Amino acid sequence: MKKYWEASYRFGLIGGIFSVLAFLVFHWMGLDPTNLSMLFGYVMIPVFVFLGIRFFKKYVNQDWLSFAEGMTIGFLIYTLFAFITAMGIWIILSFNSTLFAELKDKKLGILESNKDMIVSQLGQESFGTTLAKVQEMVPWDIALNDFIWKMIPGLFFTIIISIILRRTNN
Question: Which key words are in the record (predicted)?
Answer without folding.
Answer: Membrane, Transmembrane, Transmembrane helix
